[in-house]
Every structure is written in C-alpha cells, then in structure tokens.
Amino acid sequence: MWAYESVFYQIYPLGFCGAPFENDGVESPRILKVGEWIPHMKRLGINAVYFSPVFESDTHGYNTRDYKKIDCRLGSNQDFRQVCEALHGNGIRVVLDGVFNHVGRGFSQFQDVLRNRENSPYLSWFHINLGGNSNYNDGLWYEGWEGNYDLVKLNLKNEEVVNHLLEAVQYWIEEFDIDGLRLDVAYCLDHDFVRRLRQFTDSKKEEFLLLGEMLHGDYNQMVKEGMLHSATNYECYKGLYSSFNSLNMFEINHSLQRQFGPEDWTLYKGRHLLSFVDNHDVTRVASILTNEKHLPLIYALCFGMPGIPCVYYGSEWGAKAQKSEGDPALRACFEEPVFNELAEFISRLAVAKKNSEALNYGGFRSVVLTNRQCVFERKSEHERVLVAINADGESYTAHFDAGCGTAVDLISGQPHDFGGGSQLPPYSAYFWKMER
Q: Which residues does residue 416 pair with via DSSP β-bridges, in sequence order?
C-alpha cells in the first residue's frame, strides 16, 4: 500500500493558517498558505499530508458544524480543492481528519434537538435524556465525549447518522480526491461503524487509507482485515523520547521487540503503525528532549523502526512548545518554513525510508543493545538494513557478526567496512544497507 512507503507531514490547519480560535463567520482563504509550503515539503521528502480538521466547526476543529463545508476561517471549498490539486500535482497524497465520534454544539441537527426536543427528527442521532440537564443549562442531558459537553457524542448505531457520515466521505473523495482518513479517537468508535466505513471506502477508491487514533490498548482490536490499515503508535512515542532522556535504550527496544520482534508472541508483526516524535496534542520534541544533540537521533530512530514516519509541521527545524502552554502554543502559525541542518538530516532520512524495501516492510531484530546504544536489523525478502544509534557523547565500538564485510549508509551514502568492529562516533545514527 502507498502509505507503507510514505513519509507523512501533519498540518493543523487552523493554527498553521493563523485562524482565530472562535469561528467568526468571516470567510478568508487562509488555507492557500499550504500551497506556498509545497516546495518545502518536497525538499523535506514528504509524499503525504495529514490535515487535522478542516471542516466548519465551533472552535478548534474537532467540534464539527458541517461535514461538507470547509471552515470559513480557512476559506471556501474551492480554495481547498485548489490546495488538494496542487498537492496531488506534486506527488503528495492527502489524508483528512475524520471526526466521527462527536460533533459540536453548532451542528445543525443538534441545534434542532435543542429547539424541538421530543419533536425533533434528529433526537435519536445523539444520546439524549430529556429529563436531565447539561452544563449549558439546555433543559436536557446529552452524552459528551469524555465529559466534554462542547463535543456532542453521535449515535453511530443510528442508520441515518451512519449514512450522513458516509455521504460526507463520498463527497470528500469526489470533490477533493482525498486518499485517506485519520479517525479521531478511533478507540471510542463503534466497531460495526468502522467496518462499514472500510467497506464503503474500499468501494470508492483503491488503497484508501484508514488510520486510527489509538492512545492505549491492543491496536489489533481495530487494525486488521476489514477495519483499519494503521493506528498511531503512542506506546513507542513515549518510549522514543524517554529512552533518550533517561539514556536507557532498553525502553524503546522493549516496545519494538514486544510489537515487531521475531518471536511468535509479537503483537504487531507485519503491521504498519504511524510513528511520530510529536504532534498537535503533545509537547514538541525539541522541548521535551533534555539534550538537543539527541534531536537528529530521535528522528533517525523514528524513521528506522517499523512503521510510517510522520513529521509535525515546524518540528523539522526544531520549533519548541510545551503542552503546559496550552494547545494554541502547540499549533502555532509560522510565517514561512525553515530549512536548517535538522531539516536537511530529516530529508535524507525520508529518501532512505521511501526507497528501502527493508525499512518499509522488513521485520525487527535487536542486534546490539546497551543503555546508550542500539543496533537493530530490518530485513525484508530482498534487502537487509542495520539501524545503528549512539546516544552517548563518547565514541562506541559495536562488535557483532554483520554477516558481510561491507555496507553503504543510506543516510550519508558513505560505504562502511565492518572489519574490526563498527565505530559509532558521539551522537551518531546510521542506516547500513548490507551487501548481499
């Protein structure tokens, strides 16, 4: 599948474009800014963009008002169509955020329920108790997502609701030619709905991606035949930065071994989960790492491990922001992109990842593991790559049976001789493609 051979770039459009937090009802073609960043994305090696919510909402995008209308703060449907055409014209796929668990209070069908109560034809679209009350003093109670009553939970067992959502997906495919969906809070979604969605999208577009936001639990519950193709790998997200901050590479290796190792009990062997070092919901990686020299290394590990790497806009040049500063800080508006030494390194990782069968499809086997170093193998049918990381400020010589005498580093393009052990300079990373 195309996604398994891709490098993703996440954009949170409302923040990226500098839109006001509250929906002011004023249409402005801010989304066209994305087109100006296409040369930067191509230079970075991106071939798929995942957009956080773009549809009309009350505030932050996840409280949808209208599933068939681009948020007026971003522009018109025609503006977004222009952006999608430009991305596709440059070989970049488009994945949208599908927020199907809940809607905003401004959703017209919910507003009808507030006005007409038991006489509303949409009463069963939600989980309503007319005998209760809400935090908004509506004179009725309704279920909100995890107690957030600005997010009104949809009844995904209701056939009218399901059809409404599927019609919207069909519209996005037909009008914007989108290539996939990232399903918000997928762990909350009704499994029968996800199966319906997969069947529907399979019938509408070949290799249409369904990626689920999974924060915890067993990803196999939803990432399987007939349901999701992929899920966000939050287990390894934590392990990535924690391993560097504590100088304990055993932590991330344990997660990778548990998820993708060669043993029969491995959980996700053959799965392609979304790998990331930060996103719109968490502290930016440059702010969470205690040693800035680990910044290139964490990206190398993210691109070298099994999965689909995703870069969050701005983080490729080391932008900083703490979760404690609030969501707007994490979802910043940058006037223009920056292409520095870190971005250049990520671009080389992207080329290596996209063009390597082993990095795209290979298994995982730990070869060398210490607190501050790790070497692991990614092996596919026709290719073998060794990923080597030295998180220490001192050189390290790794001794192991490479199975051959020479290799080439996919990151730098330089040859490597395994005779006498492999010298790892301080704070270094390698993708050694082994000679057959």
A: 407
How far is residue 314 from each of residues 16, 330, 392, measured CA to CA in Å? 9, 10, 26
Report the alpha-carbon distance of residue 304 to residue 8 in Å, rounded. Answer: 14
What are 365's two structure tokens? 């086997």
User: 181: part of which helix (H) or strand (E)?
Assistant: strand 180-183
The pairing of strands 209-212 and 180-183 is parallel
| C-alpha pair distances (Å), 191 with each of 109, 268, 311 | 24, 19, 29
Instruction: Indicate the length of the chain as a whole number.
Output: 436
- Full strand arrangement of the beta sheet holding 384-390: 365-369, 373-379, 384-390, 428-434, 406-409, 415-417
More confident call, 327 vs 421:
327
pLDDT digits (tens, 9 = 90+) for 160-217: 999 999 999 999 999 999 999 999 999 999 999 999 999 999 999 999 999 999 988 8
Nearest alpha carbon to residue 215 among 121, 138, 279:
279
120 contacts: CB under 8 Å, gap ≥ 6: 112, 113
- Evaluate the CA torsion angle 401, 404, 408, 410 in order and state its sign: negative
The confidence score (pLDDT) of residue 264 equals: 84
Question: Whose structure tokens read 């223009």?
Answer: 336
Instruction: Round the average pLDDT of the chain to a whole number and report it.
Output: 96
Find out whether 352 and 50 touch, Cβ atoms under 8 Å: no
CB atoms inside a 10 Å sphere around CB 386: 28
Contact 120, 91 (CB under 8 A): no
Answer yes or no: is pLDDT of 77 > 90: yes
Which pLDDT value is given to residue 360? 97
Q: How many other CB atoms are found less than 10 A from the CB of residue 141?
A: 16
Q: What residue type is 211 in one-letter code?
A: L
Whether the predicted pLDDT of 420 surpasses 80:
no
Q: 371-405 pLDDT, tens per residue?
A: 999 999 999 999 999 999 999 999 999 988 878 88
CA distance 422 to 418: 6
pLDDT in the model for residue 287: 98
CA distance 179 to 130: 41
Q: How far apart are the first and last CA of the chain?
A: 26
The pairing of strands 406-409 and 396-398 is unpaired
Whole-number pLDDT of residue 265: 86
Strand runs labelled E in 264-321:
274-276, 308-312
